[in-house]
Structure formats: C-alpha cells, structure tokens
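INTERNAL TRANSFER SHEET
From: sequence group
To: structure group
Subject: Gfo/Idh/MocA family oxidoreductase

Please process the attached sequence and return the structure record in the designated field. Keep the field labels unchanged so the import script can parse them.
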Amino acid sequence: MDSRRDFLQKLSFGIGATAISGLPAYAGASCASPKADKQLRVAIMGLGSYGTRVAEAMKDCKMATLVGAVSGTPSKLETWKQKYNIPEKNTYNYENVSKIKDNPDIDLVYVVTPNSLHHKHVLQIAAAGKHVLCEKPVADNAKQTREMIAACEKAGVKFYIGYRMHFEPHTRELIRMREAGEFGKIMHVNNYMGFKSGDPNQWRLKKALAGGGAMMDVGIYALNGARYATGEEPIWVTAQESKTDPVKFKEVDETIMFQLGFPSGVIASCGTTYNFNNYERLYVVGEKGFAELSPAFSYGPIKGHTHLGPMNQPVVTHQTLQMDGIADIILNNKPDPNVSGAEGLKDMIVVDAVYESIRKNGAKIMLTGK
Ligand code: NAD
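Return from structure group:
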C-alpha cells in the first residue's frame, strides 16, 4: 500500500466532547449544535489531498464556512462547486486569483499548495487584502517566511500556519500540564515523526516544489513539538543525515536526526524520515513526571499517557477544530495558540540551521542572532 496513505489512514472523524482544555467551549461541540451567527468565510487554494480533507472537515465547523476555491484544474472547480455548494463567483484559478480582492464574500484564503509555492501564494493573497492561513512548512526557509510576515503586516491581514496539533486535545493537555508545572523541571524531550514515502514521482521528492524532504514535511512536527513540550526556544542545533536510497532521495533529505539545545540545558533529541514506518512519538520527561504521545502528530487517534495514567482526551477531527479555532481567533479577537506566522518563522530558523549543520558535517549551529 502507498505508505503515505498508510500514514493518513490513522485519521479519525469522531467529534466528541464539548469542553476541551485550553480551547473555546464550542470546540468539539456535537455535530448537532448550530452554526454560530458570525462565520469566517474561507476559500481553499490547492484542491489536492489535504485541501479536500480540510473541506470535508469543515462540514462540521460551527464558526467557519467553506465558500470559495482556487485551482488550476477547471474540472476540480466544477466538482467542488457541486460538492461543497460553492458559487461560481467564488472560484478562481492561479492566473486570476488576485481578483479575489474585489470579492467581499471571502475573508480568508487557506493556502494548501506544494511547499515551495507557499511564499508566492501568500504574497498574492496578502496583496489581495485577505487573511491567510498557510500550510506547513510555511516556506522554503526563514528569509521567505520573513517576507511573508512583512507582506501580511503591510496589507493589514492576519497570517496563521496550519499547525493543527495546537488545537488537538491531548496536545493541549500536555501543554497545560507543562505550564502548570506538573512535570516539574523539564529534563529531556525525544520526538520523532516519519513514514515510508511511496510514489517516487511525487512533488514531495522534487526540491523545486518541496523545498526539502522529510525534515520539511514531517520533521517540522518533531521540532515544533520540542518547542511546545519545553516552552522554550532552542539556542543551538546539531544534525546528521543518513541517505540509504540516494536514487529515490536524490533531491531531498531522506532521514535526519537533529538535536536542539535549550537555554535551561534541556536537549531535545529528534528524528525524521521518509524511508520507514512506525516512527511517531512525542516524549517529554521532567523531574516530577512525564507525558508520552504516540501517535503524536498524524491525524490520530492521538493516544497518550502520563505519570498519572492514560490520557482520556476526546478523539476529534483536527481540521474541524483548527478551522473553528482560527475563526474564533479572527472573529472574536482571541489569542492564538502559537500558530502565527511568527511561530512558523521560529521553526524555519531551526530548519535552516538543521540543513546548515548537515552541510557542515554536524557542526553546532548557534541560533542567537539568526
Ligand atoms: P497534493 O499533491 O495532494 O495537493 C497539492 C495541490 O496543489 C494539488 O491540487 C495540485 O494540483 C496543486 N498545485 C498547484 N500548483 C502546483 C504545481 N506547480 N505542482 C504541483 N501541484 C500543484 O498535496 P497535499 O498533500 O495536499 O499537500 C499540500 C500542502 O499541504 C503541503 O504544503 C503539505 O505539507 C501540506 N499538508 C499538510 C498536512 C497537515 O496535516 N497539516 C497534511 C498533508 C499535507
């Protein structure tokens, strides 16, 4: 079986509880609960596999509504118009998408195109005066990310990254416990995320469209997870790459181990791969306790336990909570749970350093001043 599909099969569509720690009360509300009066009107740009997953998940949203679509393939737009009740006037292609600025019925565009197109597409959407939600990895590097943040600031629009784990109940609970000091002083983090990549012709293996390999695609979860497991920002990075299939992974990284040093002295030991399965875990251990999530970053069901026993958080559709969460942040001026463009930049600075360390044979890259 295609291994990406294998990875994706871990999803769950259940929506359960009504109150999730750290999230607004609507989050996880039952499918029967009504739509809120105010709606964030969303267009999806890039109608591929993940864009479709988001569209399906949005059927259960209470505060966000799918109203538009951007695609280079007319037949996909036709299908989406039928399937998601999208009016013709809210459909665009990549050539005329800038005209979205004249459309008062769209508030936000969710950029779900291949990684290396995010920079261009976010700049286009910001220039059109619409809020932007952009998929991870935010861009190819920190330089592009800074340009995207600056463009959104200049246009006066909000810029968020699709870091869905920040809306996920087990992850929220882990962050709550860490912030409440329930683990005591954090001593170590061990995170990894990877899967065996399938189709050798996919864009994910082409540097020009993917920007990089496993590190960019799923290593970012281990990295972002190290930041929310510690509540600190790394000050140095070391990294090593192994490439067992130099033909398939000619253009992008296959397997990377990386270590992040934090100001407290904690070292997060992290890994990512495109060449084997069963590699997904977040583990944080402190002087008084620990938490382990596995699966920790895929669609779930996320499972976890701590020093207190099994975690019993509800199983949710991540994308439904994320889209309702983004709507609540924008419509009701709520603080965001570390999913801003600035958070994407913090990750990209580390990703740049991971690749720099590899180029320099594992040298320690200091992050201060980067
Ligand atoms: P995909 O290949 O299924 O879809 C990509 C879409 O972009 C396609 O509809 C394709 O037609 C379109 N596209 C536009 N210009 C293109 C070009 N020049 N070349 C190729 N395709 C082009 O990919 P996907 O899995 O949907 O991934 C899209 C983005 O979503 C990526 O940035 C990926 O990292 C992200 N993603 C995030 C998650 C998550 O859990 N947050 C999961 C999967 C993918």
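Handover comment: Residues 40-164 form a domain with the Rossmann fold fold (CATH 3.40.50.720). The CA atoms of residues 160 and 340 lie 4 Å apart.
Transfer complete.
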